[in-house]
Write a structure and sequence with these properties.
With 543 residues, the chain is α+β, with helices and mostly antiparallel strands. The chain folds into 3 domains: 203 residues, no CATH class; 150 residues, no CATH class; 93 residues, SH3 type barrels (Roll), CATH 2.30.30. Helix content is 64%, strand content 6%. The chain has a 6-stranded mixed sheet with strand order 1-5-4-3-2-6, sandwiched between helices. Helix 13 runs antiparallel to helix 14, helix 14 packs antiparallel against helix 15 and helix 20 packs across helix 21.
Length: 543
């Protein structure tokens, strides 16, 4: 088993000698690595590994061209790859059938079984190299074999999954022979598929993965690839996209998590709308003579009421529209009333207005005592308005405000609304549910920089992390991001969930309170291992 960067010594030395470049390049690389996120640094290191592989092939394989590759592989070799692929399928399937008969349809592969499969693949590799027509083909066969040797030796991946990975060696070899960019691009779908599947299963033990929906999906993907070997990268791209969609369902479909995701999505909508409503109310009242007490109530309380109503009932629901109208009614009622008819109208409509204000605050979860405090301040303000000699707000302006409030969603922005003020209490108060199954992380860490915010928005579903929270370490899997990516959910294997606003997530990443379990993708680490072996024994490349 090889760690993220522990094997870099040998290959890195070889890379340095191969390039023949001096210090300026190294200085540039150092600056790049210190000014970017760990994710960007990992990509830079991965690109360096692939660059080293291309240089190795250029130096040691006659006629290798990194741009053109080896061209079409010889027909005889492709026939042999196809035959071996069928034999590997049969070998693994036979073991599956035998296991199903003896273990009640549950097949548990152990490390010994994986070791047997790896030995079998090694012998097949030598047979394929004997059938190769060119040095390019021999080198491709050897490198792919060494990569899969590393993957099959990765003990953190459950043995049940490694056996299915073993069945991918021949399809991947076929793609690498026909498409040499497999060795030069981190974005090749075959690499992306193996990396995503590998990163998602690192946190499972063999007992948990066997017979699970995750194993069934990996099995399905492998079998689809085996059914369409001639389609090359297209079938890998197809199943990679399907696996991404599967992950978005699989990681959030468990009972508590599914409910939590629904709640968190509503929380994001509510908090985002509350912030945007507040901004829009401030714009509407910027040049309107309104007492400060009324402004504060509208900005701090009523914007939240409107957001909750819009999320729960819909922005154009009759009750939501009534609550929206209450804002303009309150502004008008609290303005100067030099006209006797206006004062009579306020007195007549006041009971209904106060009832709507109480209804809205109840919807928000404001306690009765706090409601009465707000109502008293509003009542005192209205009484003062009766005595005021200042200019009244024109009815036309109030009507314009009422229309704008009714369609407030048309004016709110999709821009980042800032950090969401999120906590357990707000979830329980707004939605009336017990939030004990979730821990909201809304504090901690330093103010994140732009690079960390970018990293937070690039995290891939299914990736495992070590979370350092309240002095305890937790292994968590990145399970969900809300539609606007303002909220992010991590789940531990024991079912406990951690919800973070995006800025808090970036702050935790910046403070190394949330650390990726793997700094290097599975195929990159496998390529690095292959290079280390070839660095020690370069003759094996073409033997």
């Amino acid at each position: 088993m090889t760690g993220g960067g522990n094997t870099a010594g040998g290959p890195s030395s070889a890379m340095g000698s191969a390039t023949g470049r001096g210090t300026p390049g190294s200085a540039d690389e150092s600056r790049m690595l210190t000014n970017t996120t760990p994710l960007a640094r990992a990509k830079a290191r991965a690109t360096g590994v692939l660059g080293q592989l291309r240089r190795l092939l250029s130096e040691r394989v006659a006629g290798f061209d990194a741009g053109q590759g080896s061209g079409q592989p010889s027909p005889g070799l492709i026939d042999a790859v196809t035959a071996h692929a069928t034999q590997v399928q049969t070998q693994v399937q036979t073991r599956v059938n035998e296991g199903a008969q003896s273990a009640g349809d549950i097949v548990i592969f152990d490390d010994a079984a994986v070791a047997q499969v790896a030995l079998d693949l090694r012998s097949r590799t030598q047979d394929l190299k004997n059938r190769a027509a060119t040095q390019n083909e021999k080198a491709t066969i050897e490198i792919v074999a060494l990569m899969f040797q590393s993957i099959l030796a990765e003990e953190r991946i459950p043995a049940a999954v490694r056996v299915w990975f073993a069945r991918l060696q021949m399809p991947v070899l076929r793609v690498a022979l026909a498409e040499p960019e497999f060795f030069g691009s981190l974005e090749h779908p075959a690499r992306q598929l193996i990396d995503r599947m590998g990163s998602c299963v690192l946190g499972f033990d063999s007992a948990a993965i066997s017979g699970s929906e995750m194993e069934v999906e990996i099995k399905r993907i492998v079998q689809v690839i085996e059914q369409y070997p001639e389609t090359g990268r297209r079938v890998f791209q197809l199943v990679y996209d399907e696996f991404q969609k599967f992950l978005s369902r699989f990681l959030t479909q468990k009972g508590p998590t599914q409910k939590l995701v629904s709640i968190a999505q509503m929380v994001e909508q509510k908090e985002t709308m509350a912030i945007q409503y507040t901004i829009e109310l401030r714009k509407m009242l910027s040049d309107v003579p309104v007492r400060e007490e009324i402004r504060e109530f509208l900005f701090k309380v009523w914007a939240e009421v409107l957001a909750v109503a819009a999320v729960k009932n819909g922005p154009q629901n009759e009750e939501t529209l009534a609550l929206k109208k209450s804002a303009s009614d309150l502004v008008w009622a609290a303005s100067a009333k030099p006209n006797r008819n206006d004062r009579a109208k306020v007195i007549q409509e006041l009971p209904d207005l106060l009832a709507r204000l109480r209804r809205g605050m109840t919807l928000l979860g404001v306690q009765a005592g706090d409601q009465e405090t707000h109502i008293k301040v509003i009542g005192d303000t209205l009484a003062d308005a009766f005595m005021s000699k200042t200019e009244a707000i024109p009815h036309a302006r109030i009507e314009e405000m009422t229309k704008r409030l009714a369609n407030l969603e048309d004016f709110v922005s999709e821009d980042d609304a800032g950090e969401l003020p999120l906590d357990q209490e707000s979830i329980e108060m707004m939605l009336g549910i017990d939030a004990s199954m979730i821990e909201v992380i809304s504090t901690g860490g330093s103010q994140p920089g732009g690079a960390m915010m970018g990293w937070a928005n690039e995290l891939q579903l299914g990736t495992w992390f070590t979370l350092d929270h309240n002095g305890r370490m937790h292994q968590v899997q990145y399970a969900w991001a809300s539609d606007r990516r303002q909220l992010h959910l991590f789940a531990s294997s024991d079912g406990h969930c951690y919800l973070m606003p995006v800025r808090r997530l970036a702050a935790y990443l910046q403070a190394s309170l949330l650390i990726p379990t793997e700094e290097e993708a599975l195929t990159v680490r496998a390529t690095r291992d292959a290079l280390a072996k070839l660095d020690a024994n370069p003759e094996r490349l073409l033997q």
